[in-house]
């Protein structure tokens, strides 16, 4: 992305295929609510875990989506999902603990584990079966130090979704090894072909050991507003709130008001964006499959295609450089 921006400054016209950023503008009713909130003086600190009305609304909406009941006190609002990823890790692991996370996956997972002085243990996602878990391999990575499992379904960067059977397996392993699960569900509403992404929190015995991390960036095209949240077991939510209190204070008040407007209004804007993402996925899939040597699976969610370029015999870095420079 940095190289693309350099070339753009020189006048080159670049099509970006790198970070996960919706190109849609924030829907106007949400932007208007945020602007009005500034004019109304919503420019001060809020309670660290978020405006009570927003926490209530998130608990209700997230509960309805997943068919579960969440208490508003389980919801801890933050300035994006990234603080949710970092703080959950800080709250749950100590130096030397091991954390399992998907590879390929969102690069922040490894970073947040290292920042906590814990040991990153990537679990590979396989090209066959739509970038799914190799369950035997997954099981073999557990040790007595394993404390946390990071999941991301639908996944950045493969677009894969964990099946109910896989979630059940992971849940069993988490309980057997007494681990927590950080479930990054930021793409849970960007699913295609009428599919759905289930949450591990719905598996038997998992509500008390799962932290859901989700946010507004992708669903509502609000990346720059910085608004996300964690939904955690009550006692842990209190500790996460302490981390928010001392590290960021709170998410911006007017951003929270905009988030509330996003949840309260009809959800047609989300449906419209998902429809467009699906149409683009289909178009891109055809175009990428037509390139000699590339194979690619149909992504089931999020907004990524993850082609297999190994037939070209070059590293990913070399291919990226060629694509942008030539
Ligand atoms: C899998 C995943 N989790 C979390 C994030 C962070 O999102 P936010 O903007 O809410 O911090 C991203 C953004 O790219 C992502 O792809």
List the defining traits of the structure above.
326 residues; alpha/beta; 8-stranded mixed beta sheet; 8 strands; 13% strand; globular; binds pyridoxal-5'-phosphate
Task: Lay out the secondary structure.
Blueprint: H1 2-9, H2 28-39, H3 52-66, E1 75-78, H4 81-92, E2 98-103, H5 108-115, E3 119-126, H6 128-131, E4 132-133, H7 135-140, E5 146-152, H8 164-176, E6 180-184, E7 210-215, E8 228-231, H9 234-247, H10 253-264, H11 268-289, H12 316-325
Parallel strand pairs: 2-3, 2-5, 5-6, 6-7
Antiparallel strand pairs: 1-8, 3-4, 7-8
Helix pairs in contact: 2-10, 3-10, 4-5, 4-9
Bound molecules: pyridoxal-5'-phosphate.
General description of the model:
The protein is α/β, with parallel strands linked by helices and 326 residues long. Helices cover 42% and strands 13% of the residues. It contains twelve helices and eight strands. It has helices at 2-9, 28-39, 52-66, 81-92, 108-115, 128-131, 135-140, 164-176, 234-247, 253-264, 268-289, 316-325; strands spanning 75-78, 98-103, 119-126, 132-133, 146-152, 180-184, 210-215, 228-231. The protein has an eight-stranded mixed β-sheet with strand order 1-8-7-6-5-2-3-4, sandwiched between helices. Strand 5, helix 8 (164-176) and strand 6 (180-184) form a beta-alpha-beta unit. Helix 2 (28-39) runs antiparallel to helix 10 (253-264), helix 3 runs parallel beside helix 10 and helix 4 (81-92) packs parallel to helix 5. The two termini are 15 Å apart. The structure holds pyridoxal-5'-phosphate (PLP). The site of pyridoxal-5'-phosphate has 13 residues, from helix 4.
């Amino acid at each position: 992305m940095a190289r693309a921006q350099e070339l753009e400054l020189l006048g080159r016209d670049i099509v970006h295929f790198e970070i996960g950023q919706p190109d849609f503008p924030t829907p106007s009713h949400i932007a208007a609510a945020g602007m009005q909130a500034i004019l109304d003086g919503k420019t001060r600190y809020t309670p660290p875990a978020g405006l009570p009305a927003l926490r209530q609304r998130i608990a209700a909406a997230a509960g309805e989506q997943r068919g579960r009941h969440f208490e508003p006190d389980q919801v801890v609002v933050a300035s994006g999902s990234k603080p949710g990823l970092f703080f959950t890790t800080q709250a749950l692991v100590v130096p030397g603990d091991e954390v399992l996370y998907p590879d390929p996956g969102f690069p922040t997972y490894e970073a947040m584990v290292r920042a906590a002085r814990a040991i990153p243990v990537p679990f590979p996602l396989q090209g066959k079966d739509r970038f799914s878990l190799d369950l035997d391999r997954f099981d073999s990575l557990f040790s007595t130090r394993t404390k946390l499992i990071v999941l991301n379904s639908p996944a950045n960067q493969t677009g894969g979704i964990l099946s109910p059977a896989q979630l059940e397996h992971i849940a069993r392993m988490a309980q057997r090894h007494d681990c927590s699960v950080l479930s990054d569900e930021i793409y849970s509403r960007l699913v295609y072909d009428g599919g759905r992404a289930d949450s591990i929190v719905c598996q038997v015995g998992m509500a008390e050991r799962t932290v859901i991390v989700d946010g507004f960036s992708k669903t509502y095209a609000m990346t720059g507003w910085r608004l996300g949240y964690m939904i955690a077991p009550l006692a842990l939510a209190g500790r996460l709130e302490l981390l928010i209190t001392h590290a960021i204070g709170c998410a911006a008040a007017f951003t929270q008001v905009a988030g509330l407007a996003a949840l309260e209004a009809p959800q047609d804007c989300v449906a419209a964006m998902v429809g467009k993402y699906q149409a683009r996925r289909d178009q891109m899939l055809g175009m990428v499959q037509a390139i000699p040597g590339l194979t690619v699976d149909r992504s089931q969610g999020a907004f990524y295609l993850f082609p297999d370029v190994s037939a070209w015999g070059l590293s990913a870095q070399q291919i990226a450089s060629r694509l942008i420079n030539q």
